[in-house]
Batch of 4 targets.
Target 1
Amino acid sequence: MVDVLLVAPPYKGMTREPVGLYYLASVLLKNKVSVKVLDLNLNKMRLRDFQEYVRKSDPRVVGVTSYSFNYYLCEDVLKAVKNVRPEIVAVLGGVHASSMPEVVLSTNAYVDYLVVGEGEYTFLELCQRLLGGQSCDDVQGIAYNMSGVRVNPSRKPIDDLNTLNIPDRETLGYQKYSVALVQTSRGCPYSCIFCNICNQYGRTIRFRDPKIVVDECEALVRKYNYKQIYFFGDNFTFDKQWVDCFCDEILSRRLKFRWSCETRVDNVDLKILTKMKNAGCHMVQYGIDYGDEDVLKKLGKSFSLAAVEEACEWAKKSKLGIEAFFIFNCPGENSETMNNTYNLIQRLPLDALEINLLTPYPGTQIWRNPEAYGLKIINKDYWNYTTKKYVLENESFPREKFVPAFRDLLKRMNLVTADHSQPEIFAFLETEKKIAAWSSD
């Protein structure tokens, strides 16, 4: 028997460490709440096997984390839990739940509570109240149904992220992933019109102590024999002094592992990138997004194309690889701006490239008010919100013009592989094939 079972639904058909649930579980364990973590990406189960797992675990509370594109899988998981034992308390968290609590609660019969925003201490208090038989009505940061949807006042973001323990992956029934994930910061002060991360973590960026982050890395390298770590947090180099201390800590401990991170082109310089390379970084990911400055401004980006080219030049001088993200079907886009973006991509010394389509995630500016950007949401099936599907109509570049131009762009970029297969983005007009929660019976 366990107090809490945390479940990670399948993620875009990929296997990735559910590190958010690890940090959540660590807070529960620290406060004497027993917990298991089940990753359905790694543990492919049939429905009856999952339900048997729930019976044997016998949890009082089941928590599931949600993104928009796998929200329907969260429904499948919670429905299966309730069919095993209706009295199990079902809690949903994550960015999708945080962005639209009223809609989720009014349409999902299998959810008892939502955790809105940063989850650790809200979920801890909720579990402690539930396990102790106390009322949860006044817990900050939750939403629930009681003669209508009630969304309680939000909980203040965690000022000191160092109060979150380093996850004890062994205690959580850890299984090996190809790349370990470690969180460095939370929150983002920028205003990109397509990003909803501030709905969960707020606009104030908060960093973990660099020594504690390296403690976690050291455990992963020395205890679990990891060779690669990805640091997630949208603005790794926002505070260059933090990066300096972090790199010094890796070097002083003689830790040897390859790592990568995501950051902005206006938050780097040659000195900091060189320091990162010396400390084991092998690649930086830049959200460049577009190759026309007017479109960049409409996307909420505040940097120039000159900054883009300079940041890429510095990375190459530092002998770092560069992966860049680009978005198409943007406000103000047309054939000329698309071609400008193609030309920028050709000029930049990129090692990897990810092409996406603008997607109106719940809670974003383009989701709340698409008309203000000359957009119309034409598809609200969230399983298509993978950034690879055409779900927005753009008045400045309507479908009959965008589709042939975008197909031509993809061909010009030679994205077809040696075996003549094509990446997912080539099927951007097709309905996304749903990921299955359960293995075939």
Target 2
Amino acid sequence: MEPLTDNEIDVFAKALLLNKTEPDKKLSSEAIRNWNEIATGRLQFDRRQKEAEALLKVKKEDILSYWDEFILGDPRMLISEVVPKSGSASSKAPLKTFEDTFHFGIDDLDSYRMAQSGS
């Protein structure tokens, strides 16, 4: 596989830019996007425009730096298992546990978060 050129990265960035700046085709899409800003408390209703502006500034070095720092530099693993409480696919416990740092079967997310933060 050949490395991406600066031109190819520009093409990808411009395609993403077009996607970000495309008007909503349905009122429900705009409403969902705006309610998401309200629900998360971010209130950045111009997020798509800011993301589009940032795409214009992306360079090959930025992508390579991100890759080196976050993909290659920090080896982490996330394992997620969704098991129904009842039915033929239900299960009492996971088949395997990997380390003490992994927690399975969390029923109360608020209690789990408090325990993790030490509160």
Target 3
Amino acid sequence: MSLVKKHLKTKQVCKVTFRLPRELANDATKVTLVGEFNGWNRKSLPLEKLKSGDFKVTVDLESGREYQFRYLIDGETWQNDDGADRYVPSGFAGEENSVVAV
């Protein structure tokens, strides 16, 4: 499972763990999470590389919303999350963005 959601009872926040499996990372040295929640900043949310070769990061997101996102591999290759809640057109020549609903 590539998206794990943990809703907090005391706040309107959901802790979402984003995980890009090694198979989809294609021998990457670095992966960043880019989306609406960080203004599509290509550098602000780097994922940690695990011993398994997977990459992961946990982000606090406001509950009751949907967010578009993608992974950026080695600063040049875009990858969607195969466990996203849905996909929407990105506006770029047939490309899609992943969506997480929290």
Target 4
Amino acid sequence: MLDAVLLLKLGLAPALIIAASLAGNRWGHTVSGWIVGLPLTSAPVILILALEQGGEFAASSAQGALMGIVSLSAFSLTFSLLALGAGRGWLPPMVVGWGVFLASSLILEYAS
């Protein structure tokens, strides 16, 4: 069991990233973008956590990963909307986006 978990730790996430890169080379940037949007690094980590720490711990970790995606999406949306309309460069939208990320993360942390 230990050897299988070690192999998963060392090989699964890199193998998935390589597969996404190869898919992008074969089918283009759009397909690659969709694949990269998948939880290619967090899913293997959560699988390993489930094998080592149990299902309850892995479920809590998965919930945290999903909340992180929500906060990242809030940052991305804020940054893109402000950067398109600002005309003042990238720094002000980035700082406001960080604030939205922090606020979103705090709200989600206390809501769960």
